[in-house]
Amino acid sequence: MNIQTADLCDDNRDKNIQVLSSKFKNYGGLKKFSGEIVTVKLDKSNWRLLEMLRDEDGEGKIVVVDNSQEFFGVVGDKLMTFAKNNNWKAIILNGYVRDTDETKKIDVGLFAIGTCPLRNFEKTDSYRDIELNFEGVTFNSGDYIYADNDGIIVTKNRLI
Ligand SMILES: O=C([O-])CC(=O)C(=O)O
Ligand SMILES: [Mg+2]
Q1: Which residue, of 5, 44, 76, 157, has the fewest CB within 10 Å?
Q2: Interface pTM (ipTM) of the complex?
């Protein structure tokens, strides 16, 4: 699918398209993607996200993760490899990533706000399929994302 987020914005002005802040950069190897959102709220610890990427089929899915911009590396080459192996399209993270020399070589999208080499080791709880709000954008499981080198757009319904 040839995704052009700019064209999608122009052609769907009546559809309440949300655009994520350009603070988010792609540290993954997949530069154009689309898919259905699954939301996860973390409290610093990434173990639930790790289990999900490792154990669940992510065909056609994009996981949107809110770690409240806590300064810990949440996703690195290990989680990205799990994501790739289970066909997850991309990870959008309100937080930080690490191992980025490696994550860039893995064919999965990985948008985040920056890098941090330190991870969190404490196991805390997480919440699936709840509404997330960050940088002025609302995300719900079942919404759609389209992304390319211009950025990320979020819509309630599938556009293409
Ligand atoms: O191990 C972790 O928790 C995060 C990480 O570095 C990886 O996914 O490679
Ligand atoms: Mg690592």
Answers
A1: 157
A2: 0.98
